[in-house]
Amino acid sequence: MKKIIYICDKCSKEINGLPIKLVPCSYDQYGDVAEIGSEALEDKAKKIQKNDYCLDCFRGVCDLLEPDQEEIEEEIEEEMTQEEEEEICDRIENTPKKGGKTAPLDVGKIKTLYKANWKAKEIAEEMRCAESAVYRHLKAMRENGEIE
After folding, report:
1. Is the Cβ–Cβ distance between 123 and 134 less than 8 Å?
2. With a threshold of 0.85, does the pTM exceed it?
3. Which of 104, 133, 121 shows the shortest CA–CA distance to 28?
4. Which residues touch 113 (CB under 8 Å, ≥6 apart)?
5. What is the rounded distance in angstroms from the CA atom of residue 11 to the CA atom of residue 4?
6. What are the residue boundaries of the structural domains of the chain, listed by start?
7. What is the dihedral of CA 19, 24, 27, 33, to 10 degrees?
8. DSSP 13-56
């Protein structure tokens, strides 16, 4: 039986449990991921994204960003069920990619599910996309008179 041991890339200590990944990104006014900035910043962001961090080092980063991190720490410290962990891994593995970006959404499917009285959250889960993306498409359909 193999045992996977994670080492924190900041303090070099063994990580108990799962490591924490930092994913620096920037969002545009629509909530979609946008370019971070210069090529140097993009390279640094890619490097940071590959690192594994222990909870103490993550807390240090959080303290730099925002002094009050009690809510975030509570969420991290809550144990995930095996089913939740498998679902997250499945979503990561099955996320469609196209040149580094997610594939375009099937607007017709969003419209059909909405007309079948599905909630935006349910549509987002089915489509494997952000709930905000569903709301954005629904808003555009309302403006175009396609839905009420």
Report:
1. yes
2. no
3. 133
4. 122, 123, 126
5. 18
6. 1-78, 97-148
7. -70
8. PEESSS-B-----EE-TTS-EE--SSHHHHHHHHHHHH--B-HH
**Which 8-state DSSP code applies to residue 138?**
H
What is the spatial distance between Cα 119 and Cα 33, in angstroms, rounded to a whole number?
Answer: 24
Q: What is the pLDDT of residues 81-120, one digit of tens each?
A: 667 767 766 666 555 555 555 567 888 898 899 989 999 9
pLDDT of residue 4: 82
Q: How many CA atoms lie within 13 A of 128 on its CB side?
A: 14
Which CATH number does 97-148 carry?
A: 1.10.10
Residues in the chain where the model's pLDDT stays below 50: 67, 69
